Amino acid sequence: MSISSESAFVRFYRRLARPRLVLLLAVLYLPVQVTVGKVLGHIAPDLLLIQTTFCRSTFLSILTSWSPAELSAYRNHFFPDTALPILYALFLGSFIAALTNHENEKPERRNLVLFAMPFMAGFCDLLENAAHLYMLGDYSRITAGMVFASALAAWIKWLLAGASLYAIVGLSVRKAREQRRLYTEIEINADAGTVWNILTDLSRFSDWNPFIVQSRGRALPGAIIECHPRVPGGRVHSFTATVTAAEPGKSFAWLGHTLFPGFASGEHIFEILPAGRGVTLVHRMDFWGVALPFAWKYMEEPTRQGFVLMNEALKKRAEATAGTR
Fold it and tell me: Measuring CA to CA, which residue among 46, 88, 90, 40 is closest to residue 65?
């Protein structure tokens, strides 16, 4: 389906499906939420009750129990709270869009419904705020009908916002279980032993490896190794990993995590396969974790380029080593 044939709502959904936008909106939203909490001060615990009560007498009893300073704080909180529903609707909507959008595929109806929920919650929040400001302007306006209407808007807001958060958690868990793979291979005119020895001599990576520019540790199953990779044009990063396979002349692999397992995890795998007078080196990596949907777009191609550079450098070193024998 072409972009031009999509509805305005779907185009809006796709525009918000950007990982960097999710982070930007989070940065904008959180300070406003903190500001609302500071303005409310110690009356914040009463806020949920006055928002959700359907009872006029309960609504009035809360208002009349507040001091003039507390009433002033409640009125003042509406200034930042006007922006808050817009920001959290955009933030949650962008988060859902980033987790569910697939380029060049028609969005599923259920995903569009999930995407719409935080905006419906934000709209109800604004209606609730407008109703409260209207009633605060003149207590004679605090009728049973107005209290019921504002409470109904508040309940719908909380249910939709809660459902949006629940959906984000569920989608994130599902995404964390999905794997992405980077796959490269290269033909090397050298024997398997030569390639294996170069790959597992981690302390000498700095002599030849343009991707993992430094490493140390032992190529033994269960051993902890340290790696310092650098993608083309990027900075050097550091991580530790656990060796998961070390079969001489056949395979070498390690498993690493960013922050904690399941956030951004990956198994880096080298397989040495017989091929004519030499070998084929399969160099791949399997990725998974909740951060992957947001990071993959930015890391896939630079990481692939790093793999290719390492493959070519390994080929050159292995063939030079084999040629000197």
Answer: 46
257 forms beta bridges with: 265
CA distances to 181, 262, 263, 265 from 259, in Å: 20, 9, 7, 9
Q: Where are the alpha helices (DSSP H) in the chain?
A: 8-16, 19-40, 44-52, 56-65, 68-76, 78-100, 109-137, 144-177, 192-200, 205-208, 292-323
Please state, in angstroms and rounded to a whole number, the distance separating the CA atoms of residues 321 and 315.
10
Average pLDDT of the segment spanning 90-103 = 92
Q: What is the dihedral of CA 46, 47, 53, 58, to 10 degrees?
A: 40
pLDDT tens for each residue of 112-145: 999 999 999 999 999 999 999 999 999 999 999 9
Residues recorded for the chain:
325
> Residues 100, 171: contact at Cβ < 8 Å?
yes
Cα separation, 40 vs 46, whole angstroms: 10
Percent of the chain with pLDDT over 70: 98
SS3 148: helix
pLDDT tens readout for residues 246-284: 999 999 999 998 877 778 889 999 999 999 889 999 999
Q: What is the pLDDT of residue 4?
A: 53
Nearest to 156 by CA among 191, 119, 182: 119
Contact between 255 and 242 (Cβ < 8 Å): yes
